Amino acid sequence: MGATPGSVRSFRAMRRMRKIILVLSLVLSSRLAAGSPPLGDGPPSWAYPVNSPGLTEPADDGRPLQVPDSAARFTLTQIRDLNFCPDWHPGDHPAMPEIVARGRKPAVLACGSCHRADGSGGPENARLAGLPAAYIVQQLADFKSGARKTSVPGRNPDWMVAIANAITSEEIEAAAAYFSSLKPRSAVRVVEAVNAPKVRVVDWHLAVASTPGTEPLGGRIIEVPENLEQFERRDGRSRLIAYVPSGSIQRGRELAASGGNRTVTCSICHGPDLKGLGPIPGIAGRSPSYVIRQLYDFRAGARAGAWSALMKPAVEKLSMDDMISLAAYVASLSS
At 17, phi and psi to the nearest 5? Predict the structure, then answer.
């Protein structure tokens, strides 16, 4: 079977990008001296929540459920079906291709079941809306090759490895074209604080604890849904709140702009407004929990692949406090 026009375009885009990366990585590496600060005792648990083996879900009573400002109704069984994408707001996006809406049983889950119909994602995964199509294609190639992993095995990125090994190139092209056509939106309200709510782990992300209370935030970012029920129903319009250390947004702004002799100016690759540059993804308005995991994974070597050479010199001298400040800053920006 011959190559499709879409696959040819993606291949050419990736080939051009690899040339750009080679040049930029050499430039970036030359700007920074060797020497990496310690990152603590391992991946921070608040950024890598892991489901408890004993985590149970409420039984489905068959009742049709709803979310604000939607006429749609879905049962709990439908919402939990990872081969089904609940489409609460069809007017928010174009018609979903089959691979996004339903996937392909048994091995390929519906892309929209986790990343939402509008590509908004959540703290537990990536926001795909507006990502360059060539970038999405490359990430699936990296998952398939084993180059892109996670610093905490057993988390949901392991699903992406399985999907990447089962999905076809035509399905990848369809999903990439769809998500890249969507307009990203900012869904996180960033609040600088000394204290944060006590939390629990729910489906690979944090949520406010069942028993209300607060505790010192310290050197953490605590990101939780504002309305857990709405978020768990996979409504793309649901919003989150991220508690970040006092002063971290300004520290991140300064670090992103100057590099502070520890990294490079973020706008060199991600654009002057950090909303992306060509095939390089935007980072403005992204989940700070997700950003922390990517920075940590790049530095730890868990996330590699064809385009990771750009990030290696940018992260190797960052401390955890630096990562927190950068994640807080970029999350505070509009998409």
Answer: -65, -40
CB 93 within 8 A of CB 118: yes
CA dist 233 and 65 (Å) reads 8
pTM: 0.89
Please state the domain extents for the chain: 1-335
Q: How many CB atoms lie within 10 A of CB 189?
A: 13
- Nearest partner of 43 among 273, 296, 230, 220, judged by Cα: 296
Chain mean position to CA 222? 15
- Cα distance between residue 275 and residue 330, in whole Å: 10
Residue the block writes with tokens 């091995």:
107
180: tokens are: 């890249």
302 has pLDDT over 70: yes
Instruction: For 138-168, write each residue's pLDDT tens digit.
Output: 999 999 999 999 999 888 888 999 999 999 9
Q: Would the pLDDT of 6 be above 70?
A: no
**Under 8 Å between Cβ of 314 and 280:** no
Greatest CA separation found in the chain? 61
Alpha carbon distance 27, 299 (integer Å): 18
